[in-house]
Amino acid sequence: MGNMHLSHPIPRAADRPPLTEAALCAWIGQAAPGDRIAYHRGFLAWDLSPEMHMGTRTARAELGQIASRARRLADAGVAHLVQRREGEGDYTYLILVRPRPRQPSIEARRQVLNAETAFNDAIAAKPPAGMRRAA
Fold first, then answer.
1. Exposed, middle or buried, 43 (CB in 10 Å: 0-12/13-18/19+)?
2. Interhelix angle 57-75/21-30, nearest 10 degrees
3. Is pTM, for the whole model, over 0.85?
4. CB < 8 Å & 24+ apart, contacts of 59-62
5. What values do phi and psi take at 15, rounded to 5?
6. What is the DSSP string of 86-118?
7. CB 79 within 8 A of CB 96
8. 19: nearest Cα among 51, 62, 76, 71
9. CA 122, chain centre distance (Å)
């Protein structure tokens, strides 16, 4: 099979900060049906595994939070999860926003509320540059 590289850094625009769970939550809250965002590039199961020694423990933990949030949003019917194969052992993981039902399920409402709460908690803990914490 040859020498496979199973983990690749997520390609990012120079002006776009790394995706975090809070950023994903903020994005999903304002995204329109059909919008999509890449939340990982590599081989997710391997990149999350501590035995594979891919990235730092902190980076794996953040990736795990993002992947878990994406799965919960998909399970609640808010989004679809899609993998696009880029090469051998190399995938782009996308979350696509589904059309919102007229009457969202209780689980969908709970996931959106949880996403908003996670975002607000993250902002309260570490506000973006130029934003002050509320007193």
1. buried
2. 30
3. no
4. 62/20, 62/21
5. -95, 5
6. EETTEEEEEEEEPPPPSS--HHHHHHHHHHHHH
7. yes
8. 62
9. 14
DSSP label of 51: G
Exposed (0-12), middle (13-18) or buried (19+): which is 101, by Cβ within 10 Å?
exposed
Torsions phi, psi for 117 (to 5 deg): -65, -45
Model pLDDT for residues 21-36, shown as the tens digit of each residue:
988 988 888 899 999 9
Per DSSP, helices labelled H in the chain are: 21-30, 44-48, 57-75, 106-125
Q: Which amino acid is at 88?
A: E
CB 86 within 8 A of CB 41: yes
Confidence of residue 126 (pLDDT cuts 50, 70, 90): low
Q: Residue 101: what are its φ and ψ, rounded to 5°?
A: -70, 155
